[in-house]
Amino acid sequence: MQRKQNPEHTIMHIWDIIITCIPVLWIPFVWYTRELRKKSTDISNQNPPHPTRWPMVSIVVAACNEEKTIQEGLNSLLSIDYPNLEIIVVNDRSTDNTKNIIEQFTDKRLKKVHIDTLPSGWLGKVHALHKGIQHTTGEWVLFTDADIHFSNASVQKTIAVCLEKNLDHLTLLPRMYSDSIWAQSCISITLCFIAISQKPWHVSNPEREEAIGAGAFNLVRKEAFLKTNGFEWLKMEVADDIGLGLMMKQSGGKSHFYTAYEDIRVEWYPSLSSAVRGLEKNAYSQIARFSLLRGLLFSGAAAILGLVPLISIFGSYSPWPTIACVIFAVYTAHQIYPISKISKITLSLSFVIGNLLLCYIGLRSTILGTLRGGVIWRGTVYPNAELKKGMRVLF
Q1: What is the 3-state secondary structure (H, E, C) of 107-152?
Q2: Which site from 185, 199, 208, 246 is most exposed, i.e. has the minimal number of CB atoms within 10 Å?
Q3: pLDDT one-digit tens code per residue, 204-232
């Protein structure tokens, strides 16, 4: 007589099979963050010869409601040790005290551009960069953000590297940190997704299609930039920094990527709430691609990565899936550690829960973007249809 199987045992057996497969989802995180750490070189390790002539460098800074960061940011730029430098700061329709703070600066190297209106069919930041480059006189143009802190020697080092390697485009990945452990965990996992999708260590290979850019540091040879389609091609691209790298590479420019953990730093998001708001446009436009279904699938995957290891502690016959997930999370956090200021142990412990936060961000941005029919960025609403039509970067 056949023995009747206990339904509870069957359910637990199926559950064990499910959670046993979960660690497999961590493999891309482990592999690509390892590749990022292994194949990325920090700019501080480069020792290029000084050129006989330092070319003029124009730094373009777009600022919209940056009253909390603009003064320190401009002071950092003006402290850069470079003999031939101009800074174009573009005040993009700020409604706070940004304009008044900018006007207090009297350094002759600083050019001030004020934008009062945004033309139809443009994202605010892309339009600000477009206006900024029109005021440049340099042979090289560095696009950066208003809250970035530079070491004194950073521009000299990068220009010397570009001249030595005959580059047309150089991207530096800064140290990105937050005083909030939860915001930092979101940042770190976001960087993992960028590593998986963009593979920045391949950008210098002209036979590969990968391209990279960073809002903190996108340096271009102006002559090469003028051979591209310009910012008009990117006017509705949310990922304008990566879009710039893509545009340079597609036009035949020679690109390269370094980390710059010692020379450039930025407090990307000071709190969890600011990270949730800041990543809203990125999650819906770049990951969900304005699709409700895609956004829900992404959020579900993030939830599985975060929830199952925790649930399996209480409902599994075997502890190894949980142990495997924790080991993978610790290893991945160890690879990401140089980008942050948070200790490896603390970052490791928060990494699994960071996926739950990313699930919330993805779910929230997808629902809000769908209900609103658009994305809100810096106080301006951009319709989904226009953003989707203007997409150039696919993650």
Answers
A1: CCCEEEEEECCCCCCCCHHHHHHHHHHCCCCCCEEEEEECCCEECC
A2: 208
A3: 999 999 999 999 999 999 999 999 999 99
Please give the average per-residue pLDDT across 36-49, as a whole number. 89
305 and 174 together in one domain: no
Q: What are phi and psi of 375, to 5 degrees?
A: -115, 135
Q: What is the pLDDT of residue 349?
A: 60
* 149: CATH: 3.90.550.10
177 is in which domain, residue-wise? 43-184+197-269
186 burial (CB, 10 Å; 0-12 / 13-18 / 19+) is buried
Q: Does 88 share its domain with 105? A: yes
Q: Model confidence over 163-180: pLDDT tens digits?
A: 999 999 999 999 888 888
Q: Which residues of 126-152 are buried (b: 16+ CB within 10 A; e: fewer)?
A: bbbbbbbbeebebebbbbbbbbbbbbe
Are the C-beta atoms of residues 242 and 395 closer than 8 Å to each other? no
Instruction: Examine the domain organization and report whether 90 and 223 are in the same domain.
Output: yes
**How many structural domains comprise the chain?**
2
Q: Which of 207, 80, 246 is nearest to 149 (CA)?
A: 80
Lookup: tokens for 223: 């002559």
CA gap 168, 170 in Å, rounded: 7
- Strand 140-145, strand 169-177: pairing: unpaired
Identity of residue 76: S
Q: In terms of Cα–Cα distance, which of 25, 6, 3 is closest to 14?
A: 6
> For the purposes of burial, counting CB atoms within 10 Å of the CB of 122, is it exposed (0-12), middle (13-18) or buried (19 or more)?
buried
β-bridge partners, 257: 171
Phi, psi of 143 (to 5 degrees): -95, 130
Residue 122: name the closest of 1, 244, 293, 236 by CA. 236
Say which range, 181-185, 211-215, 256-260, has the weakest mean pLDDT: 181-185
Q: Are strands 85-92 and 57-63 parallel, antiparallel or unpaired?
A: parallel
10, 290 contact by CB (below 8 A): no
Q: What is the pLDDT of residue 291?
A: 92
Task: Give the residue among 85, 316, 364, 254 at the shortest CA–CA distance from 76.
Answer: 85
159: tokens are: 């220009």
Q: Taking the CB of residue 39, how many other CB atoms lie within 10 A of it?
A: 12
Shared domain check, 358 and 215: no
